[in-house]
């Protein structure tokens, strides 16, 4: 494989806002990735919960290739057949009546938050504009979404940030009750806090949020950028909980690796986005919509969704077995194939060390903060890949423990 481009090039030509690994992946197939030197890695990171069907899934490649020979981009001055088919598929499978498409999770959340304020202004007046969200949440990296996110480190140096945003404790009903008022236009919750540590919401908490929003004429927004499209074992996590939001954001797994985001909502709420109120140049382009439609057709089947649950249990059992040997985790938590290993006090703050150790054994993992090792593999990851990945992780953990 060609080594004309090296990791050193990143430090010369890229803005230094990322710190990528020392190796460069150049090829992927299923849950396997190869770097420039031909080393084979098992991928349990999934492009940060994006590669829902693994790398180069043949049906996604075919959908993209077929559409690429027809029509790439026309803008939203026109519509196109693939985006309308995708909208039909998503509304048929969810609570929603309407869909808006964009290019990322941050853009999807930006649309959610703008729509919530516009809807409140249309129906209750401009003073009903406060958005409240959870501490330690994450909703994207635009100035608006990073402000709604409840992690102050992401807004440092970017002040002044948008006003009218408050935060409450995740999974704390009393904290939510204290925060919500008649000025609240929206409550924003991740059904599973992803970047915040792979922490699932309690069902009672989400039910209380639904009831409080109804009492205060506020909209309930679920950020399902990371949990959506089969990740939890249901098409969307709200279906797992039996609590229905008013607006939902989706991205990551939706495109299976091709950039796309979506906002889903009801007929009534959608009317506040009349012509000209919001837009995007690339959103809903035929290429992205064709791939996403194929992802939905594959994922939203009993076989794949049931497979997520069985594969999740296989991973959990293996991770717990590793922990029985080395006592490095407080718990393994999460839903479906979004799992987090919470480090024990003896290894507090060292999640990145676990990821680095795993990479030396040719295993790709993620962090979710400094104390949680995150796994977000393909929803169709093969059992043999799970088993071999666990063996590699066992060896990595053994080295870390021995070196401590």
UniProtKB/TrEMBL annotation:
Per its UniProt record, the required cofactor names are: pyridoxal 5'-phosphate
Keywords for this protein: Amino-acid biosynthesis, Aminotransferase, Arginine biosynthesis, Cytoplasm, Pyridoxal phosphate, Transferase
Give the pathway: Amine and polyamine biosynthesis; ectoine biosynthesis; L-ectoine from L-aspartate 4-semialdehyde: step 1/3; Amino-acid biosynthesis; L-arginine biosynthesis; N(2)-acetyl-L-ornithine from L-glutamate: step 4/4
Residues bearing N6-(pyridoxal phosphate)lysine?
Answer: 252
Alphabetized GO MF terms: diaminobutyrate-2-oxoglutarate transaminase activity; identical protein binding; N2-acetyl-L-ornithine:2-oxoglutarate 5-aminotransferase activity; pyridoxal phosphate binding
Binding annotation for pyridoxal 5'-phosphate: 105-106, 138, 223-226, 281
Q: What is its main location?
A: cytoplasm
Reaction catalysed by this enzyme: N(2)-acetyl-L-ornithine + 2-oxoglutarate = N-acetyl-L-glutamate 5-semialdehyde + L-glutamate
| Statement: the UniProt record of this protein carries the keyword Cytoplasm | yes
Cofactor, how bound (note): Binds 1 pyridoxal phosphate per subunit.
Which locations, inside or outside the cell, does it occupy?
Cytoplasm
- Is Transferase a UniProt keyword of this protein? yes
Q: Where does N(2)-acetyl-L-ornithine bind?
A: 141, 280
Query: What CDD domains has UniProt attached to this entry?
Result: OAT_like (cd00610)
Its Enzyme Commission number? Answer: 2.6.1.11
What other comment is given for this protein?
May also have succinyldiaminopimelate aminotransferase activity, thus carrying out the corresponding step in lysine biosynthesis.
Family according to the record:
Belongs to the class-III pyridoxal-phosphate-dependent aminotransferase family. ArgD subfamily.
Give the record's subunit note: Homodimer.
Q: What is this protein called?
A: Acetylornithine aminotransferase
Give me the gene this protein comes from: argD
């Amino acid at each position: 494989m060609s080594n004309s481009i090296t990791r050193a090039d990143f430090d010369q030509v890229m803005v230094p806002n990322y710190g990528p690994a020392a190796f460069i992946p150049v090829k992927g197939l299923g849950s396997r990735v190869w770097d420039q030197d031909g080393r084979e890695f098992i991928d349990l990171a999934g492009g940060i919960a994006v590669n829902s069907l693994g790398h180069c899934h043949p049906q996604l490649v075919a959908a993209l290739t077929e559409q690429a020979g027809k029509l790439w981009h026309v803008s939203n001055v026109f519509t196109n057949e693939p985006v309308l088919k995708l909208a039909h598929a998503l509304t048929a499978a969810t609570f929603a009546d309407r869909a808006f498409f964009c290019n990322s999770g941050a853009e999807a959340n930006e649309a959610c938050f703008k729509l919530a304020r516009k809807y409140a202004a249309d129906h209750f007046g401009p003073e009903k504009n406060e958005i409240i969200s959870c501490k330690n949440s994450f909703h994207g990296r635009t100035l608006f979404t990073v402000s709604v996110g409840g992690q102050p480190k992401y807004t440092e140096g970017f002040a002044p940030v948008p006003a009218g945003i408050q935060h409450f404790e995740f999974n704390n009903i009393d904290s939510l009750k204290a925060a919500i008022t008649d000025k609240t236009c929206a409550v924003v919750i991740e059904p599973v806090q992803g970047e915040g540590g792979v922490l699932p919401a309690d069902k009672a908490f989400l039910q209380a949020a639904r009831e409080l929003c109804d009492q205060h004429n506020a909209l309930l927004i679920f950020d399902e950028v990371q949990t959506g499209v089969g990740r939890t074992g249901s098409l969307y996590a709200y279906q797992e909980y039996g609590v229905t939001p008013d607006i939902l954001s989706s991205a990551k797994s939706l495109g299976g690796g091709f950039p796309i985001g979506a906002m889903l909502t009801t007929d009534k709420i959608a009317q506040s986005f009349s012509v000209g109120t919001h837009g995007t140049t690339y959103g809903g382009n035929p290429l992205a919509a064709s791939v996403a439609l194929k992802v939905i057709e594959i994922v939203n089947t009993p076989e794949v969704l049931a497979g997520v649950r069985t594969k999740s249990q296989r991973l959990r059992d293996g991770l717990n077995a590793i922990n029985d040997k080395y006592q490095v985790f407080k718990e393994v938590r999460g839903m479906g194939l979004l799992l987090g290993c919470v480090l024990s006090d003896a290894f507090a703050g060292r999640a990145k060390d676990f990821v680095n150790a795993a990479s030396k054994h040719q295993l790709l993992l993620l962090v979710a903060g400094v104390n949680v090792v995150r796994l977000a593999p393909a929803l169709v990851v093969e059992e043999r890949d799970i088993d071999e990945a666990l063996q590699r992780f066992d060896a990595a953990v053994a080295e870390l423990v021995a070196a401590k």
